[in-house]
Hints:
seven-stranded parallel sheet, 13 strands, globular, 12 helices, 2 domains, alpha/beta, 370 residues, Rossmann fold, six-stranded parallel sheet, single chain
Amino acid sequence: MDTKGAQKTILYVITKSNWGGAGRYVYDLAVEAREQGYTAIVACGGEGFLVERLAQAHIPTHTIHSLQRDISLLADVGSFGELLRLFRSERPDIVHLNSSKAGGLGALAARSAGVKKIVFTAHGWPFWEQRPLPVRAAMWFFSWMTALLSHHVICISDFDLRATRRMPGVRRKVARIYNGIASIDFLPKIQSGHIQVLTIGELNRNKNLFIGIDAIIAARARGADISYDIMGDGELRPVLREYIARKNAMGFISLLGFMPEGRNQYRKYDIFFLPSRKEGVPYVLLEAGMAGLPVVASNVGGIPEIIKDDISGILKSPDDTEGFAEALAQLARDARRRSRLADVLKKKVERAFSLDHMVAETMALYETGC
């Protein structure tokens, strides 16, 4: 065990306890921090799969009962009070905040509690979401305030790094550290007789799954013999189910729900598809690359820092249904192209997005002065 973190406590805070990208990030860092001699604690809203995984890893957790993604003055005041009491009782040396709501409330509470080092990771700034301009302006303002209250800001993509450096008073405290993954024990490929396409993600508006479904239907209209599995859960599941039924697509499009070990399933598939409108550096693309899958994705956020169009995958605008459809149809017909794109992506992920690199850079940030 590395002892550089001995006697120091890191308290990680995240808004939701589901197993999304930010949850996976917190889990990996908490486990690795403990291995390096820190005391790691996690606080989050709810008691989802992240809490289960942390319990299995013997990482203590605290539930912030009022903490939620949606804006609610009463709940937000309650969350601030809960966080303030937690910071005063645990007296952490470092608070590492994740996600917008936990970031803003947590930074203010940590400052009020006198925490000496506050780190905030922006997993894709919320002001990139498709919202009315006044809402986006308010999101930018609160994001800026979170950055100002933090001692260090981590961006997971150069795309967000550039935006953060334009915030007044923030430039010198921001760093870009890519998400990273370790090797995965994938289940073997099962031949199905047709091309199988996979999307994994939370079922929300940012994932752009209505366009994804339309693109699959349009690819089949071009003669592609493909099926489509969507793995994940979320608020839009009933609406998506109805949409698939209305499009008469239930015979070849399936909503699989959340699968705890879903990432082991990648090699059952032939193509990974991510039509999102907003992303940071999505773990699912790193996992798809590690599994040796070719990728069709949208050219938003940090995705072009993983995928180079027609070199390590295919990129399209998130509104380009026909472009997605044509890319999927072409890949379905061309096994050699699928293999070429997948090989380049796998090498890129192994070289630039390792878990060891992410952990080393983050732990170094913990040890730097405020």
